[in-house]
Design goal:
The complex is a heterotrimer of chains A (about 350), B (about 300) and C (about 475). Chain A has about 350 residues and is an all-alpha fold. Chain A contains 18 helices and no strands. The radius of gyration of chain C is 23 Å and the shape is globular. The termini of chain C are far apart. The chains are: A mainly alpha (about 350), B alpha/beta (about 300), C alpha/beta (about 475).
């Protein structure tokens, strides 16, 4: 019996070695092909980079020579386009890239969408979005009907948001995939303002993740129109939404009235109190000092710290803090005030 | 300083009228020494000097009083940075406007001519003027004076007229070095082509490109005295942009560097950091290259007054 | 004679069974890893990277660099951190009472000026002597403190840090510019469900580096180092990827790992009285997750890269392996209650047993196997064949898996593109079981022994210092 096992083992080892050897050969061949591929690609880059510059940037005439023959050249063009798109913002250049891609690169990506490999399909989706190949929009919609992964679905949403916002809105609301907040933010930030504002209007019908993403995106976009909507959200039932709305208002930085924020000075959530202390940076100290003093004696370290920092930002802040230090009994508050004052003076 | 006016001696007798109280006014030979220094700073500090020469016109009666009147009037009208002096032949006044162009000098002349024409006490005075704008250092003092005197001599020139000597207003072309430090090869080429094509009057650009911070520092190009425009990324392999910024701004002649920093980071913190470190412009990618071109042109145009 | 027979059969059986078990489990992990990496093959990662450069999208990270007598490598490490493509970071270098020129070197190179800074002591540590800030890089801080060990230094770093995530980096490691972005990827994409992540470690020996940038990778010529390269490939590719998929990771390398500050602090920070402080933290966090009954994960990301120096001589390598194994045993023993404990879910049922059997006690069995083979050869007839069988199993376990790992890594990540280097590694892999493996097994058993012995004089146990690594400069 043992003899049998030994020879079985030997057979297994031999078999595995053969398999590995074949794989090694396959790898070596792959490497060869890849290096050839890179040569063709680099040759294209060397020969035609200047021509591309002249065409895209200097309004030179289009030359048929630029049309890619084969995948390697497509990759070279992708490199060129991505260098331009990542670094320069120029409508004319973007338009030319879009036209070229729609005309000459479309076929390649169309084929890629039907590839078995997930990574190839993802790459194609990336390119369709980046190079604005809107002629493939219908193909994308067909593609969606296949059994696709969440990441592919996300890319599709991104494509819709760029090419057809209405479709995007529809899809995102009916989607059964729950994306991460950061992903929603990525999508929303690309939207046109008049499309985005609809999300603010429909706020309550959105799932929690999306709601947070909407608030944060509104803060980043910093448009005045969103201020009112954000202020409304201060009265929302969910405390997390209140806090986010506070944060958003802080980041936009335009505070025209103090009243909506005063109730939060005594909020149960320390995050809310912290945000109010931050928001008061945008209001003159004379109006806010009494509240900040309250917050300086808050039980939470972060709130105290921020209250002190906000006070100190004002011209008369240090003086006010000195006054406070002399008159107060609250040990922690005094310590905080002293440290922050010292730090500001040290600067 | 009490000086007798030798030129108008009557019958060899020194009359009381001859003793004039002329104000302190510099003379031609004194000014000549200073002129040599100012001339060099035209190039070094790019300061335009405009020289104005005035002569009483024919209609004026030749009178001792008149000269002094003109002198004190002129002295009261010029700025602290301008210099009034008298030429050795006594007939001409010269004013050096040290930081002004021909346009400003003209405006000045128009103003004082208007005053002279309007006020009664100046009624006998009539002047004519000649302007020279100096934008290079190929000027010899004596020649400058002679050319202007020539302009003012002769009766063709009318009273209250302003002539111009254009011999010295040609601005020399200055060589400016440009260094582009960018890792992406394609974009580096784009920047190089674009900057090479920029046409700024009176400046010529010598563009060099680098792939990383270390090769830039090794090149020693930045040590020359030329004005140097640096367009670099904040993140670079081998010695990043912030470090280069620090090194350049701590050199003794750091004022010659104009540093534009490109970055993908769109945060206020990063921008503030860069400006505090001495960056002249913080550019977030993707950016409008045409606008950058315009900014660069404008930056150089500002250099000459 | 009979007794010897029984012994031989008994031990032989155990060893055989163990080998089969190990081979089967490695096979499973390999297949899982293969399927995972296959998917990402040829994916254009730059697309993802660039979309997240904007400060808005990402979460800021504090980079902690504990340094003890690292005057040679610390500057390069910091340079590589300064060149990370990540929106918002701060770099905190912690000088752990170095006795060489580390402090002065850092102060000089980065123009550090002393400042006053309020530090919140979330975790108790040894005293801080002085905090400095760089004049060139406003987000770079140096903390000078009393010597307290790597764990203590990291805790100081955590206290000083201001961002919600921190990344611990060894004082002689070099990061690739996209490393941080990629290691944070699971944390960002999961919206905070992933609270810690570890990155892939590569051996830097032989790589050409300047100012913190690696510009050419080359397989080192030192055979010992090449073997370590192969070992790392095997461990990371097979071990970590598979475990990560099922949230069973117990070790994310201390050389490059990211943690959520909140969770790390709540888990007590890094323990100063234990050797394997990085594993200890991970285990503590896992416990915390289970105790709080939350759905959090710890992942391993194969893309990001941290280059680190590997020992080049037998002596240093021995110290390293001994220490690692001693630390492993120590940590596992400390938390032995978690083993097969339903309270701790899959960690208790799968992870712990795996680490106990395969990683920790495995070397004993394997070493036993070697000894067995030698004895069996001498004893003669039947055992001759048993020995042969064992040998063949070792071959599968050692050679086949190594070659498979090398080829597979070459296919998916292609760290060493030159054909000659690839062949070199494969040839050397054939020899592993004859010299490298027994050596490391022996050292690991030494580590086990050390742990058992030291246990008896716990009171006298000195803090094991940071291992002195030889620099290749």
């Amino acid at each position: 019996m043992i003899k049998l096992t030994v020879s079985t083992l030997l057979a297994i080892i031999f078999f595995l070695l053969v398999v590995l050897f074949i794989f090694l050969m396959y790898l070596l061949v792959q490497r060869q092909r890849e290096s050839y591929f890179e040569k063709v690609r680099d040759r294209y880059l060397q020969n035609y980079s200047q021509l591309w510059y002249d065409y895209l940037f200097n309004n030179a005439l289009f030359s048929i020579v630029l049309v890619p023959r084969g995948r390697a050249q497509v990759e070279a063009i992708e490199k060129i386009f991505s260098s331009y798109l990542k670094n320069i913002r120029n409508e004319q250049v973007e338009l030319k890239i879009k036209q070229f891609s729609n005309q000459y690169l479309k076929a390649f990506y169309e084929k890629d969408l039907s590839s078995r490999r997930w990574s190839i399909r993802m790459n194609a989706l990336y390119r369709i979005a980046d190079l604005q190949i809107d002629e493939l929009l219908t193909k994308c919609q067909e593609f969606e009907k296949n059994n696709i992964t969440d990441e592919e679905h996300f890319q599709l949403l991104k494509i819709y948001s760029l090419f057809q916002p209405d479709l995007f809105m529809e899809k995102i609301k009916n989607s059964n995939v729950n994306y991460a907040e950061s992903e929603y933010r990525r999508l929303f930030v690309l939207l046109d303002d008049n499309v985005f504002i609809q999300f603010l209007h429909d706020f309550n019908s959105l799932p929690a993740n999306m709601q947070f993403a909407v608030i944060d995106t509104a803060a980043v976009k910093r448009k005045m129109e969103y201020l009112d909507e954000l202020k409304k959200l201060l009265h929302h039932d969910t405390p997390e939404i209140n806090i986010r709305a506070l944060k958003g208002l802080y980041e936009i930085g335009i505070i025209d009235e103090m009243d909506p924020f005063i109730p939060f000075v005594t909020s149960e959530m320390w995050e809310a109190r912290l945000m109010v202390a931050k928001i008061f940076k945008h209001v003159p100290l004379t109006y806010t000092y009494s509240y900040l003093e309250q917050l300086l004696q808050d039980e939470n370290w972060w709130v105290r710290s921020q209250a002190a920092k906000t006070i100190v930002e004002d011209r008369h802040g240090i003086a006010k803090l000195q006054q406070f230090i002399e008159s107060s009994n609250d040990q922690y508050a005094i310590e905080m005030a002293q440290e922050i004052a010292a730090r500001k003076e040290g600067k | 300083m009490i000086e007798s006016n030798n030129k108008k001696k009557l019958d060899g007798v020194i009359l009381m009228n001859d003793i004039k109280f002329t104000h302190d006014i510099m003379q031609e030979h004194e000014v000549e020494r200073y002129f040599k220094i100012w001339r060099e700073s035209v190039i070094r500090s790019r300061l335009t000097i405009t020289a104005v020469f005035l002569k009483t016109a024919n209609a004026t009666q030749l009178n001792e009083n008149v000269n002094d009147q003109v002198t004190s009037f002129l002295q009261s009208k010029i700025r602290k940075t301008d210099l009034l002096f008298q030429l050795s032949d006594g007939d001409h006044w010269g004013i050096f406007f040290l930081q002004s162009s021909e346009v400003e000098a003209r405006a000045f002349l128009k103003r004082i001519f208007a005053i002279l024409k309007a006020e009664r006490k100046f009624q006998q005075i009539a002047l004519k003027a000649s302007i020279t704008e100096i934008r290079n250092n190929n000027v010899i003092f004596e020649e400058l004076l002679n050319k202007n005197k020539q302009m003012l001599s002769g009766d063709e020139q009318l009273t209250w007229s302003i002539a111009e000597v254009k011999d010295y207003c040609e601005q020399p072309t200055e060589l400016v070095k440009v260094s582009i430090i960018e890792q992406n090869a394609i974009f580096r080429q784009v920047l190089e082509s674009t900057l090479k094509q920029i046409n700024i009057p009176y400046f010529s650009l010598d563009v060099k490109v680098y792939e990383d911070g270390y090769s830039f520092l090794q090149s020693d190009d930045y040590k020359s005295g030329h004005m140097h425009l640096i367009l670099m990324n904040d993140i670079l392999p081998l010695k990043n942009g912030l470090e280069i910024l620090h090194i350049l701004r701590h050199m003794p002649n750091e004022k010659k560097f104009i540093i534009y920093m490109m970055s993908e980071r769109n945060s206020e913190g990063a921008a503030l950091n860069a400006y505090e470190g001495g960056v002249d412009e913080y550019i977030v990618k993707p950016f409008n290259l045409r606008l950058l071109e315009a900014k660069i042109k404008r930056t150089f145009a500002r250099f000459w007054q | 004679m009979k007794i010897i027979d029984y012994c031989m059969m008994f031990f032989g059986g155990i060893i055989l069974f163990y080998m089969l078990f190990v081979i089967v489990s490695y096979c499973t992990m390999f297949i899982i890893a293969m399927l995972d990496l296959r998917k990402r093959y040829r994916l254009d990662l730059s697309e993802y990277d660039d979309a997240h450069i904007d400060a808005f999208y990402s979460k800021p990270v504090s980079l902690l660099v504990p340094a003890y007598n690292e005057e040679v490598g610390v500057v390069d490490t910091v340079y590589s951190l300064l060149n990370l493509r990540y929106p918002q970071t701060e770099i905190i270098i912690i000088n752990d009472g170095s006795t060489d020129q580390t402090l002065q070197t850092v102060i000089e190179h980065f123009q550090m000026k002393p400042i006053n800074k309020i530090v919140r002591t979330n975790i108790p540590t040894k005293d801080i002597k002085q905090i400095y800030e760089s004049e060139i890089y406003k987000n770079c801080i140096l903390v000078d403190k009393e010597n307290g060990g790597k764990a203590d230094a990291l805790n100081v770093g955590i206290n000083v840090s201001q961002y919600p995530y921190f990344c611990s980096i060894d004082g002689d490691s070099i990061l690739d510019e996209k490393s941080l972005l990629r290691v944070m990827k699971p944390i960002i994409l999961s919206d905070g469900e992933v609270i810690a992540a570890g990155g892939n470690i590569r051996i830097a020996n032989g790589a050409k580096m300047q100012f913190g940038s690696i510009y050419e990778t080359q397989l080192p010529s030192n055979y010992l180092v090449i073997m370590q390269v192969i070992e790392y490939l095997r461990a990371f590719l097979m071990g970590r990827i598979a475990l990560s998929k099922f949230n069973l990771v117990l070790i994310i390398s201390g050389a490059f790992s990211v943690f959520s500050k909140k969770w790390a602090v709540e888990a007590g920070g890094y323990s100063t009285n234990i050797i394997g402080e990085d594993m200890e933290l991970v285990v503590n966090i896992h416990r915390l997750i289970k105790e709080k009954k939350e759905n959090k994960r710890i992942e391993f990301v194969p893309d990001p890269v941290c280059w680190t120096e590997a020992p080049q001589t037998l002596g240093v390598l021995r110290n390293q392996r001994r220490r690692w194994h001693q630390g492993l045993f120590e940590s596992l023993w400390k938390h032995k209650k978690m083993t097969l404990n339903p309270r701790y879910g899959m960690i208790g049922f799968l992870s712990f047993p795996y680490f106990w059997l395969v990683e920790c006690l495995g070397p004993l069995v394997e070493l036993g196997g070697y000894i067995y083979i030698v004895i069996a050869f001498f004893l003669g007839k039947i055992y001759y064949e048993v020995a042969l069988m064992l040998l063949l199993l070792f071959v599968i376990y050692g050679v086949i898996f190594s070659i498979a790992a090398i080829l597979f890594e070459s296919w998916s990540m292609n760290t060493y593109p030159k054909k000659r280097e690839l062949l070199r590694m494969i040839l050397l892999a054939f020899t592993e079981i004859f010299w490298y493996r027994p050596l490391t097994l022996f050292w690991r058993c030494e580590g086990l022994l050390r742990f058992v012995l030291r246990k008896s004089d716990w009171g006298n146990m000195k803090r094991v210092g940071i291992a002195e690594k030889e620099k290749s400069v």
